[in-house]
User: What shape does this take?
Amino acid sequence: MTVNDRGQDSVPSNEDLPSVNDETTPPGTPRGDSARRPGRRAFIGLAAAAAGAAGLAGAVTLPPYLTSPSTSPPPAAPPRGRFDGKVVLVTGATSGIGEAAAKAFAAEGAKVGFCGRRVEFGRRVEQEIRRSGGVARYIRADVRDPQQLQRFVDETVSVFGRLDVAFNNAGITKTAPVHEMTLEQWVDVQDTNAGGVFLAIKYEVPHMLKAGHGVIICTASESRRPGGVAYTASKQAIKGIVDAASMDYGPKGIRINAIAPGTTDTAFARPQGIPDAIWEAFKRAWGPRNVSGLQRMATPQEIARAVVSLATDEFSYMAGSTVLVGGGPLGGGAMNMPPGFPSAR
Assistant: This one.
């Protein structure tokens, strides 16, 4: 889940730079008019190159990423009913990784309660899960608001009767060097990311203590990018929350861990209005330059499957851990943008 400076969930327009990062948008990506102009030119140039690739292939040497086949993940294993009879709660599930996780848990038999601020998107996800034979309930809630978040947790338990698993995923980013970041921007990121996880655990744990068991997974990050002071600080704070909470509640049967997704092909990573062929060309160029192992972006479904697996009893001895699902060792620094695209700071 991502939100813009107005506090609304947002997808960037095609005037923005190509945005790529782990689960949201890249710390270090320039913003404003000075960033938009080269971003548009880059995409226009790449669009022209991709459109003419077939006709020019015999006459000129084209960059490999315009002619090579796109990489793709292996097919997913069929659902195995691992969460039959269980109740799962997901924050920030109206798009991206959260949406994919809600659908994946439902496909495994779970009854899923999920929240997000975009009512239209939430209803769509709810309907899609139900049409697929799953059970889901969307409840609008802002994780920065203690009363809304507690109501979401309590209502989910009231409707479904219990709480077995929680995936605390909601998060945003705002990028700027330290001296240019406003206090309001800093506070908003901390309140949403770290504060939202703190509040979610605070309200989830009492229900799990009554049951004597539970699993909580939180979305952290290992990303460290220029301009990402607020985002990086908030995600490192989540890791600290997970460390401490796992010791508080592990002896009482509640396992708490974090997942650190790598760059994921979500709507927020893809500028709005970019044709599929152009986006695929960009991803083919970007992957080998930035993902040392698998050399491609993750799909939301891949990250969701990792979350689902971590929530099973197959990981019954894991607590207080942050699991990197990044396609390879994840380093910091500016993104290595493909030829024809502007460089991030």
Summary: The beta strands are 87-91, 111-116, 135-140, 165-168, 214-219, 254-261, 322-325. The first helix runs from residue 33 to 51. The two ends are 24 Å apart (CA to CA).
